[in-house]
């Protein structure tokens, strides 16, 4: 995984819209159901010991995270009664996906302080990817396993962008174990792009382009 520069004003406008919607307009905490609430258990689930446990399971770990502490933003998790919620999400999400030529939305989450996602590798959702992260103060991180070395990518205040490739178990490229934690409010929007590296590179150029 690597950071890229977020310079494209059109992309920044869409991301600001995401921030406004889910940090100001809507109270996701009040209206969106948490599936797996592992609150307070981040020390264990983002530890090297847990990572080794997952790695030792090999293909027995199918790829999805087992748990964490975060609120899903997508409308299918919304139990409030404002019909505009789905309209707003669809509009802003489509704008980003069409603008960048994205294939699918993998995850749209809001993490409260002490929020996290446990070590996993997405081997069941192999693809080139892009991950947008908003952090209230920058007090959080994303970790991934590069060979035998755990790399920590610190969050940055405001929006930042990471890109990479998640392999499946059936490729020469190794799978990428990763996890994240935050001590402040944090939002993650992650998308897949399929398997065309040139297409993915063009998206990166577009995001980094000031126009
Ligand atoms: Fe993931």
Q: What is the gist of this entry?
A:
The chain has six helices and eleven strands.
**What would you give as the CATH superfamily?**
Jelly Rolls
Largest sheet: 6 strands, antiparallel
* SSE order, one letter for each helix or strand: EHHHHEEHEEEEEEEEH
Q: What would CATH call the architecture?
A: Sandwich
Detail the poorly predicted runs: none
The proportion of residues forming helix, as a percent range, comes to 25-40%
Anisotropy-based shape: globular
**Percentage beta strand:** 25-35%
Notes on the structure:
The protein is an alpha+beta fold and 211 residues long. 30% of the residues lie in helices and 31% in strands. The protein is built from six helices and eleven strands. The chain has helices at residues 9-25, 28-31, 42-45, 48-56, 84-100, 197-208, and strands spanning 2-4, 68-69, 71-72, 104-111, 115-120, 127-135, 140-146, 149-154, 158-166, 178-182, 186-194. The radius of gyration is 17 Å and the shape is globular. The mean pLDDT is 97. Bound molecules: fe (ii) ion. Residues 120, 122, 178 line the site of fe (ii) ion.
Keywords summarizing the entry:
single chain; 30% helix; Jelly Rolls; binds fe (ii) ion; alpha+beta; 31% strand; six-stranded antiparallel sheet; globular; 211 residues
């Amino acid at each position: 995984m690597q950071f890229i520069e977020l310079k494209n004003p059109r992309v920044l406008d869409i991301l600001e819209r995401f921030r406004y919607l889910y940090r100001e307009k809507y109270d996701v905490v009040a209206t969106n159901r948490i599936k797996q609430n592992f609150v307070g258990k981040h020390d264990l689930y983002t530890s090297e010991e847990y990572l080794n446990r997952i790695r030792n399971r090999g293909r027995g770990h199918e790829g999805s995270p087992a748990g964490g502490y975060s609120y899903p933003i997508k409308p299918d998790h919304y139990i409030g009664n404002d019909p505009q919620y789905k309209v707003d999400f669809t509009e802003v999400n489509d704008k980003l996906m069409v603008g960048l030529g994205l294939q699918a939305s993998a995850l749209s989450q809001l993490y409260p302080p002490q929020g996290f996602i446990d070590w996993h590798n997405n081997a069941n959702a192999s693809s080139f990817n892009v991950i947008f992260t908003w952090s209230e103060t920058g007090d959080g991180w994303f970790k991934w396993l590069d060979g035998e070395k755990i790399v920590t990518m610190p969050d940055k205040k405001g929006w930042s962008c990471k890109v990479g490739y998640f392999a499946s178990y059936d490729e020469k490229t190794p799978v990428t174990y990763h996890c994240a934690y935050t001590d402040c409010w944090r939002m993650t929007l992650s998308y897949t792009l399929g398997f065309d590296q040139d297409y993915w590179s063009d998206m990166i150029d577009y995001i980094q382009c000031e126009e």
